[in-house]
Design goal:
Elements (H helix, E strand, L loop, with lengths): L20 E8 L3 E2 L3 E5 L5 E2 L4 E8 L8 E2 L10 E8 L2 E7 L1 H9 L4 H12 L5 E3 L7 E3 L3 E2 L5 E3 L16 E4 H4 L17 E7 L11 E2 L6 E17 L1 H11 L5 E15 L6 E9 L5 E11 L16 E9 L2 E2 L8 H12 L7 H4 L23 E2 L2 E2 L10 E4 L12 E2 L5 E9 L7 E16 L2 E4 L2
Parallel strand pairs: 12-22
Antiparallel strand pairs: 1-16, 2-3, 3-14, 4-16, 5-13, 5-16, 6-15, 7-8, 7-14, 9-10, 11-12, 17-27, 18-26, 19-24, 19-25, 19-27, 20-21, 20-26, 22-23, 27-28
Length: about 475
């Protein structure tokens, strides 16, 4: 969201004016750290850079899990974080609920070069796909270690998880990834009377639920280790004139107003069905009185995916018919069933193309649609194994849905749709076929507009 009236030193876009800047980096320990929760309190100085990071490590709880433990391929170390909260004093500035699920979605819009060259090193993800080595026109996972025959692969040893807190990979998660607020604005900590804190709630894993890590063999419990849990904060300081101008603005009668984006999560369940057929599902998202910019849907099947863990979003073998009702009016004249249209509409939410291959997004071209059984008969992904699991489990597991609710192509405050008393309604006619009857958990992430006000050192935020 563009913010033309903000001081340039608080914006993340390149400044049109060249000015001097100093950076002071502090490594902060959490003031509270348990296997499930941590709180960091930031120092009251400078401007908090959006590229500040949190470091963490993930460990199998028993030695038997070491060596065979690896992160969910498309989620990586983001799987550690269940919820993140950014606070000023006791006021909640931003919240990321079920953060690992939404970040799994957001990551699929990065370029393959960024996912392979940066994220693999920083957060342990393995995203890249390439043509299969047998030349059969299918895809296989890249950036892993294959045997001589090319039929079995393992995760590179440097990305395997260890029980030891010393001999283990340490991952980094950017503040701008945790909170939508920090993607386009940097916090002027030196002007705030109350302390700024970051609270993280971590996942814990039993032996088999795949929320933190996966195993090539028998599973073990997993948790986030406290030894490598740090906040590496970069504090920016500009010229005295620029800092004084920003301070003067916050001391004015109007104060400093910053519009920003936050996330609201609604979770629902689709029960399992006993037989093939069509079932109409409707779920409401209560956002009365808010401006909503978009809605993103993640549907997770009940079973844990052997390579993606708890974060797979399985496509239906027979496409669903999807529509949304906003302010009691349907978004589309008729429900959308085309998978390519679903993918295009999702891309409109993020303003760029989805960077996953078609075989990962849907079953389009991989099933027998002509006889209405929709049985898989033309897999787009090889059967070669990765850590003992067939790579076919990656087939059609990045099937996210979305709708763009902005009212103008200009990325400006107020562009979201104002929601009246009626909730947003997500309508999906699920077409169940044999072998695709399981229950699903539906997570609906709404991006809403909020306002941050800083005046005389005091912070207030809108609902």
């Amino acid at each position: 969201m563009s913010r033309p009236n903000l001081p340039s030193i608080l914006m993340t876009a390149p400044s049109p004016v060249v000015s001097s800047m100093s950076i002071e980096t502090s490594v902060l320990d959490p003031i509270i750290a348990t296997p499930t929760f941590a709180r960091f309190v930031l120092e009251k100085k400078g401007i908090l850079d959006q590229n500040s990071v949190i470091t963490l490590s993930i460990h199998p709880d028993t030695a038997g899990g070491a060596g065979g433990a690896f992160l969910p391929l498309r989620t990586g170390a983001h799987a550690a974080i269940k919820q993140a909260v950014l606070k000023v004093g006791t006021k909640v500035l931003a919240t990321s609920q079920d953060y690992a699920y939404l970040q799994t979605v957001r990551r699929q819009f990065k370029t393959m070069e960024e996912k392979s060259g940066k994220d693999m090193v920083k957060v342990g993800t393995i995203d890249a796909m390439c043509p299969d080595s047998a030349g059969l026109g299918r895809y296989q996972v890249r950036d892993v270690v294959y045997d001589a025959a090319g039929t079995a692969a393992t995760v590179p040893p440097q990305f395997k998880l260890q029980t030891s807190t010393v001999d283990t990979p340490v991952w980094t998660v950017k503040l701008s990834e945790l909170f939508g607020f920090m993607r386009n604005v940097q916090l002027p900590l030196f002007l705030m009377s109350e302390p700024v804190s970051v609270e993280l709630t971590f996942h814990q894993q039993s032996a088999a639920d795949g929320t933190l890590c996966l195993f090539s063999g028998a599973g073990a419990a997993c948790s986030v280790g406290s030894a490598n849990l740090k906040f590496i904060a970069d504090y920016l300081t500009y010229t005295q004139e620029q800092m004084n101008q920003t301070a003067k603005l916050t001391m004015s009668e109007t104060g400093l107003s910053i519009p920003y984006e936050d996330q609201v999560l609604t979770t629902a369940q689709y029960p399992a069905v006993a037989a093939a057929g069509s079932v109409r599902q409707t779920r409401d998202v209560g956002l009365a009185g808010r401006r909503v910019r978009n809605l993103v849907i993640h549907e997770r099947p009940a079973a844990v995916n052997g390579l993606l863990g708890a974060y797979s979003a399985a496509a239906p073998q027979k496409p669903s018919a999807v529509n949304f009702r906003v302010n009691d009016s349907p978004i589309y004249a008729r429900p959308i069933t085309s998978e390519s249209r679903h993918q295009h509409l999702l891309s409109q939410v993020f303003g760029t193309d989805l960077n996953v291959c078609q075989a990962e997004y849907s079953y389009n071209g991989q099933v027998k649609a002509d006889d209405d059984t929709y049985a898989v008969d033309n897999s787009g992904i090889v059967e070669s194994t990765l850590e003992g699991k067939s790579q076919t489990v990656l087939r059609a597991q990045q099937h996210f849905l979305g709708v763009d609710l902005t009212t103008t192509p200009m990325n400006v405050p107020g562009a979201g749709t104002l929601i009246g008393q009626a909730p947003i309604r997500f309508e999906e006619t699920c077409n169940y076929v044999a072998g695709d009857l399981a229950a699903r958990t539906v997570r609906m992430f709404a991006t809403v507009e909020r306002d941050f006000m800083l005046r005389n050192g005091q912070v207030s935020v809108s609902a």
